[in-house]
Design brief:
With 283 residues, the protein is an alpha+beta fold. The protein has two domains: 159 residues, Clavaminate synthase-like (Double-stranded beta-helix, 4-Layer Sandwich), CATH 3.60.130; 78 residues, no CATH class. Helices cover 18% and strands 27% of the residues. The chain has five helices and 16 strands. The longest helix is centred in the C-terminal third of the chain and has 15 residues.
């Protein structure tokens, strides 16, 4: 077996690596293995100066799992490549709040592979957060408490909700990470409403610290992908001009926690009234 030509260079102390020396349109077996290992090691990886074709984009993405067809988003070509969507700042609002993609699903995506087609000369960077480190730097009592709880994730743009562990165990690495995010996580099931409203904002702020982050400056042709199971990401909404990206999403797996929830769901207040009824917490 030939050795890989991948030149892997870490970009930040917490996560992120840039990979040169490979052509994503024609990866050797050795290069593919090196890329998959870098993805597990660095959580978000970048490939500058790629001339990625639609076929190459699809074939590379499919090495990570089944590809998603998203009916409501604009496609590059509905007939030949329905899995490739076009994210254009003209029609797509910037995702400039820290989040993990569509956690309101029972099985959120594993990853997304972005190909930058046109980027502004200044601004429009993307940032990522390492949720492994966010968990590992908590105190032991806080870790133990969080491992015993679940949270509801709601679609803030329409119907859909799911219940996931607050601490997720990665199916490949076995590492634990905090699994809540500011856009989709509504409340923790084992806590009362005021307790949940106090703890979740703390966890959001804790995870979003710059020491857990990496920031990437895009260039035309660059490709990026991240592990949606153990990261947050957000766009820096500071550019002028066109920013157009082609994206493929890889379907995911059901989040698994450390074990079963340690406490029952908190559905009642002290006087027996429902604590999570009404429009704010319907689940």
């Amino acid at each position: 077996m030939t050795s890989s030509q991948a030149d892997i260079r870490p970009l930040g102390g917490s996560l992120g690596a840039e990979i040169r020396g490979v052509d994503l349109n024609a990866l050797s077996d050795a290069d593919r293995e090196a890329v998959h290992q870098a993805f597990a090691d660095h959580l978000v990886i970048f490939f500058p100066d790629q001339n990625l074709t639609p076929d190459g984009h699809r074939d590379f993405a499919s090495t990570f799992g089944e590809l998603e067809i998203i009916p409501i988003l604009e496609k590059v070509d509905e007939q030949t490549h329905p899995e490739i969507v076009l994210l254009d700042d003209i029609s797509t609002p910037a995702a400039d709040v820290w989040h993990t993609d569509v956690t309101y699903r029972e099985s959120p995506p594993i990853t997304a592979i972005l190909h930058m087609i046109e980027c502004p000369p200044v601004g429009g960077d993307t940032q990522w957060i390492n949720l492994y480190e966010a968990f590992e730097t908590l105190s032991e009592p806080m870790k133990e408490m969080l491992e015993g709880m679940t949270a509801i994730h709601k679609n803030t743009y329409g119907p859909g909700h799911a219940e996931h562990p607050v601490v997720r165990v990665h199916p490949v690495t076995g590492r634990k990470s905090i699994y809540v995010n500011r856009i989709f996580t509504s409340h923790i099931r084992q806590l009362s409403r005021p307790e949940s409203q106090a703890l979740l904002p703390f966890l959001f702020r804790w995870c979003e610290q710059s020491r857990f982050s990496v920031r990437y400056r895009w260039t035309p042709g660059a490709v990026a992908m991240w592990d949606n199971r153990c990261t947050l990401h957000s766009v820096v909404n500071d550019w002028e001009g066109r920013r157009a990206i082609q994206r493929i999403t890889v379907l995911g797996d059901k989040p698994v926690g450390v074990g079963e929830p340690r406490w029952p769901k908190h559905d009642k207040t002290a006087n027996g009234a429902s604590d999570y009824s009404g429009s704010v917490y319907p689940f």
